[in-house]
Design a protein that fits this description.
Number of domains: 2
Strand content: 15-25%
Shape: elongated
Radius of gyration: 31 Å
CATH architecture of the largest domain: Trefoil
Order of helices and strands: HEEEEEEEEEEEEEHHH
Number of strands: 13
CATH topology of the largest domain: Trefoil (Acidic Fibroblast Growth Factor, subunit A)
CATH class of the largest domain: Mainly Beta
Length: 273
């Protein structure tokens, strides 16, 4: 029997077994592909397209003087912008070290929008109201819990809400940072680093391949389509001799059927006279 795959999140510092590669393995693109294939499923990687943003997700912002991660405090039931060590390692090499840093992203198949649910506590959805107030205290999904991830050229991500505004990091009184959702343009405050797990990135690739395969095998029968749905010659249907015979026969049978019905109706009415 196949061994079940563990769904436990692995954090930085956890020991994992990695597959060895032969020293004489090819270099260049082929080597990169082998490395990607041999990556541990729980390895935290950068998405290369918006469709790959799914599953357990780590969201960070390069704030100054200290970068931050977007956390959820289940005890206080609120979003916390937690400061990260500035120097080591570099921000894009980070991985979550605690469950409060992880959000679970889900999406409806084929939809560009996503939902961000807390990875700890009872599972609340990240939402934004029309005033730009961001919270994570709702247990049900609606329009205000939908976000559209926008992958930027530098690999960072902006999150657009249903009001077509963007999620941002805002400084309030006393230097405290909080999330807002009323920015109309994407600037420094609206740009986030996002990391996902390798297995979900591969899952998105497989889905894309399947869609492309279906598109390739779908062939339109133009002759049949034109014959069924198009009318030629000023609105007159152009048909073959055999088709004309079939039409003539059908009309003749239709007339006979009508005549029989008329006769039966007449006999029935005579009977009651």
């Amino acid at each position: 029997m196949d061994k079940a795959r563990s769904t436990k999140l692995k954090f930085k510092g956890d020991k994992t077994k990695k597959k060895r590669k032969r020293e004489d393995e090819e270099s260049g693109p082929s080597r990169s592909k082998h490395v990607e294939d041999e990556e541990e499923p729980e390895t935290w990687v950068m998405p290369e397209s918006a469709a790959e943003i799914r599953g357990p997700t780590f969201v960070m912002h390069p704030s100054d003087p200290s970068p931050i991660s977007v956390n959820f405090d289940a005890t206080r039931n609120r979003i916390i912008l937690h400061p990260l060590d500035k120097d080591s390692p570099s921000l894009i090499e980070r991985a979550p070290t605690e469950i409060s840093q992880v959000w679970v992203i889900t999406r409806v198949a084929g939809s560009p929008t996503i939902n961000l649910r807390t990875g700890t506590g009872e599972g609340k959805f990240l939402s934004c109201d029309k005033h730009g107030i961001v919270s994570a205290d709702r247990e049900a999904r609606g329009p205000e819990e939908e976000w559209t991830p926008v992958l930027l050229p530098d690999g960072m991500v902006a999150f657009q809400n249903v009001y077509e505004n963007y999620l941002s990091v805002d400084e309030v009184a006393g230097g405290t940072l909080q999330l807002r959702g009323d920015s109309e343009e994407v600037g420094f405050r609206e740009r986030f680093w996002v990391k996902i797990q390798s297995k979900y990135k591969k899952e998105a690739h497989e889905e894309k391949k399947k869609r492309e395969a279906v598109t390739e095998v779908t062939v339109i029968d133009e002759t049949g389509t034109n014959r069924i749905y198009q009318a030629w010659g000023a609105g007159r249907s152009v048909v073959s001799k055999d088709d004309k015979k079939e039409l003539k026969r059908a009309r003749k049978e239709g007339r006979l059927a009508e005549a029989l019905l008329d006769r039966r109706s007449k006999l029935k009415s005579d009977r009651f006279c």
